[in-house]
Amino acid sequence: MEQDTNTPPNQEPTVLDLYKSVTKDWPSFFNFIRSLWDARRREELNSALMMEAAQPVKEEVIEPPHTGTFPWRSLLALLVALGAQGFVEPPNRQGGLAFTLYLFAASVTVWAYFKDEWHLPTLPAMWQTADPLSTRLLPLILAVIFALVAFVDFGGGKFTVINTLLWALSIGLLAYSLWLSTPKGIAPADPDARRKAWIRNGLILVVLGVSIFFRLSKIDTVPIEPFSDHAEKILDVYEITEGETFIFFERNTGREAFQMYWTLLVVYLFNTGFSFLSLKLGTVLLGLFTLPYVYLLGREYGNERAALFALFLFGIAAWPNINSRIGLRFPLYPLFLAPTFFYLIRGLRTRTRNDFILCGIFLGLGLHGYSPFRIVPIFVVAAFFIYFLHLKSKETRQQALWWLCIIVVISIFVFSPLMRYWVSRPDLFGYRALSRLSSLETPLPGPAWQIFLSNLYNGLLMFNWDDGVIGAHSVTHRPALDLVTAALFVPGILLMVVRYIRQRDWRDMLLLVSIPVLIMPSVLSLAFPNENPALNRAGGAAVPAILVSALALEGFVSGFGAEKKRQFIAYGLTGLLFAASAYSNYDLVFHKFANAYALSSWNTSEMGRVLSDFKDTYGQTDSVWIVPFPYWVDTRLPGVWAGIPNRDFALFSDRLAETLTIPAPKMFLYWNKDVETEKILRELYPNGKISRYTSAVEGKDFFIFMIEE
Question: What is the SS3 string spanning 468-532?
Answer without folding.
Answer: CCCCCCCCCCCCCCCHHHHHHHHHHHHHHHHHHHHHCCHHHHHHHHHHHHHCHHHHCCCCCHHHC
